[in-house]
Amino acid sequence: MNGAGPAPTALVGPLDSGAMYPRDRLSSLGLFGAALLAWVVVALLFTTRSPVGDVAIQMTGAALVGVAFALTMMPLFWLAAFSRHRRIAYKGDWVRAVRRGVWVGLVVGFLVVLRSQDAFSWPLALFVTVMVAFVEVSLSVER
Q1: Which end of the chain is more exposed for a tag (fewer CB within 10 A), N or C?
Q2: In terms of C-beta density within 10 A (0-12 exposed, 13-18 middle, 19 or more buried), how is residue 76 classed?
Q3: What global pTM score does this model have?
Q4: Which residues, 6 or more positions from 113, have their beta carbon under 8 angstroms from its beta carbon?
C-alpha cells in the first residue's frame, strides 16, 4: 500500500452506532453552559450578600444552588445513560435525565433550606433521599 488509504479501524475499535447526534451534543453543552452560568450567579450572590440572618437571601441561595445542581446533573445523567447503552440514544433518555436532574435540584434545595433554618438532621436527609430514589425507581421501571 502507498499509505493513502483510510486510517486503520483497529486503533479506534468497533462502534455499535455512529457518533453522537449534533442535537444531543448541543443539548449537553447548552446545559453545561447554563449550569456554569448558574454557578457564577450563586458565587456572585454569596460573595456580595451575607445569608446570615437574612431569610430572603437564604431562600434565594437555596433556589439558586438547587437550580445549579439540577442543570449540572441533567447532562451527566444523559451521558451516563448514553454510555451505558453503548453510545445509543434511546427515546426517553433526555426526559429521564431531566427528571432526575430536577429531583437532584429539589433535594439539594430542600437540604440547603433545612440547613439555613437550623432544622437539618441526618435521618431527615436520608429519608428524603430514599423517598426520592424510591419514586424515581418506580417511574423508571422499563415495561
Answers
A1: C
A2: middle
A3: 0.81
A4: 58, 59, 62
